Amino acid sequence: MAMSIFTLSLLISLVLLSSNTHSSIIQLPQEDSPISVPECDIDLLEFPLNFEYLQAEFFLRASVGHGLDKVAPNLSMGGPPPRGARRANLDPLTRDIITQFAHQDIGHLRAIKSNVQGFPRPLMDLSPRCFAAMMDEAFGHPLRPAFDPYANNINFLLASYLLPYVGLTGYVGINPGLKGALSRRLVAGLLGMQSAQDAVIRTLLYERGMMKVQPYDITVSEFTKRISDMRNRLGGTGVKDKGIIVPPVMGPEEKHPGCVLAGDRYAVAYERTPREILRILYGKSTAHSPGGFFPDGANGKIARGYLHSD
What we know:
The chain is mainly alpha-helical. It has helices at residues 2-23, 42-46, 49-64, 68-71, 73-76, 92-113, 128-139, 153-161, 164-174, 181-206, 220-235, 274-281, 301-307, and strands spanning 212-213, 218-219. It is globular, with a radius of gyration of 18 Å.
């Protein structure tokens, strides 16, 4: 019961964060207004559209069975629909939470595109096979049967564990490079919501940490450790990720094994560069070769620049 109360309190915090964000909403430019962010910020502000598209489509299609093309077709800008996504087998609470996440990510797309032109939705692979390949990479061998993110509640939460934290570290990483006050305010607001989504997913998994994921007979905690270790390995710049249960020396103040929120020794969020983000989302140790969630590569000047260089 205590853990359920903890979960409920965190969800309430998320609602309050959302309310505070709306009460101090960024003043976005009108269509006929000149661009209000410095030119040097444009590429950095556009880059997160890649993982916001990814999350919006994954959460939408898993929760309600359709994606941006039905809910907000203008936001896709004619980009191809994702491959392989479908409605997941979720309990009512999880479906409600994920539906909220989906609409939050639609709002993120609108917020970014109200400040910069943006780019079309890239081709994304949200098929069970793509997620299974990611899990196989995390464990270093194929899981049998192949992991299916849409099969049940716990599988979906583990699949979701793959996404918001990557965006969280990405927002932390691009923030120091922004020059404009509006740009920094926008990214701070997006980071707050991305962090909250990650916190809810981690909390729901933490509550089930010792549960065995069937039919693999592997705990939820071990799954998160393997996924986090994989992201550290793919990112290629050391430890910037932790599972939900860690050795106490890696926990808060080096004293607690619980890691419901991942941070450094001072409990400060880790940062990742766009290059690191692409390496993780491509499922490869390079940003120069597409794959993983983006079969043709991510979009935008930064991502395409890596694809066209050695």
